[in-house]
Specification:
Elements (H helix, E strand, L loop, with lengths): L2 H32 L6 H19 L2 H22 L9 H23 L15 E5 L2 E4 H23 L1 H11 L1 H6 L4 H23 L9 H16 L4 H26 L5 H11 L3 H12 L10
Antiparallel strand pairs: 1-2
Length: 306
């Protein structure tokens, strides 16, 4: 257990947490403002990864691919909202869960039909390739630092958008009292469409950013969707500030816990038992952490007041 390993895993945890935030931010807005359970939100993450793979190959550059992928992810999210999700807003949560689960199955098969079942790879952009020395003799990939910087920038822009613009005011009001917002003459359907499309674009951006360091494959958004729901439950449904803090905490707990749990258990167990127990406990740490937070704050860290 060295300081060097701790620093590396902390950076990895921040990177993972910020990716989770990009996904969870849109999900918490959709759930908080629209009271809509969208299990298909993870599919937008997958679609973003496939779009950057396709457009970067077509344009020959990651930057131009990203420029094309983001509006396409936005358009695709709006298309799903108009064709499918808009008809579910007045239905109960069970209908929403079943319908959006069907969308997951349909789109997972759809990407197999278009791109095939084999994983795709996206090259790291040349300008962000290589490593940088962050401490004496310690190298860290530039691209991973770029993901951290991009996540922090988006978080700052989202904070400004939600707290200091008219659209953000309507979103916050919609999360608090959507009936009153509608009664005041705001086109609630248009507000819902904007929130849904923006959330889809954020998830697509997350998928595009991780594509060069992960395999792009069908179903890649399913597992991370579970973590995104954990984030919004811990942070407080409808709270961007809560989603940001919870995502960082989840990223750090998961990454550092997987690295150090076996080492810590060796203080009380023999090495063989510590290794086996540590590997078994590490994936459970985020759920143990969630249970602990909810025990003391059942509504999450920063619940939206209604």
């Amino acid at each position: 257990m060295t300081a060097t390993l701790l620093l590396i895993q902390t950076l990895n945890g921040l990177q993972f947490g910020l990716i989770l935030f990009l996904i969870a931010a849109g999900l918490t807005l959709v759930f908080g403002v629209m009271d809509f359970i969208n299990l298909a939100h993870g599919v937008q993450y997958m679609i973003g990864a496939y779009l950057i793979a396709a457009f970067s190959a077509w344009t020959g550059g990651f930057g131009w691919g990203l420029v094309l992928a983001l509006p396409t992810a936005l358009a695709f999210g709006l298309l799903l909202e108009v064709l499918v999700f808009r008809h579910l807003y007045e239905r109960d949560h069970l209908d929403q869960v079943l319908a959006t689960f069907g969308v997951i199955l349909f789109l997972n098969q759809g990407v197999k039909f278009v791109w095939g079942a084999a994983p795709l790879s996206v090259p790291v952009p040349d300008i962000l390739s290589g490593s940088v020395e962050i401490a004496d003799g310690l190298l860290y990939p530039v691209y991973r630092l770029a993901i951290i910087a991009a996540g922090l920038l988006v978080a700052a822009l989202l904070y400004v958008l939600v707290n200091f613009t008219r659209v953000g005011m309507l979103v916050r009001a919609g999360a608090t009292n959507p009936q009153m917002v509608s009664a005041l003459g705001v086109n609630i359907k248009r507000l819902f469409m904007i929130v849904f499309g923006f959330g889809a674009m954020l998830a697509g951006f997350a998928g595009a950013m991780v594509a060069p360091i992960l395999s792009v494959q069908p179903g890649m958004g399913d597992n991370i969707l579970i973590l995104a729901f954990v984030v919004i439950v811990i942070g407080g449904i409808g709270s961007i500030r809560g989603a940001f803090l919870a995502a960082l905490l989840i990223g750090l707990v998961d990454t550092i816990g997987r690295s150090f749990a076996p080492n810590l258990l060796r203080l009380v167990l023999d090495p063989s038992a510590a290794s086996q127990t540590g590997r078994a406990i590490a994936p459970m740490l985020i759920y143990i952490f969630m249970a602990g937070v909810l025990f003391f704050r059942p509504s999450g860290l920063f619940p939206v007041k209604r």
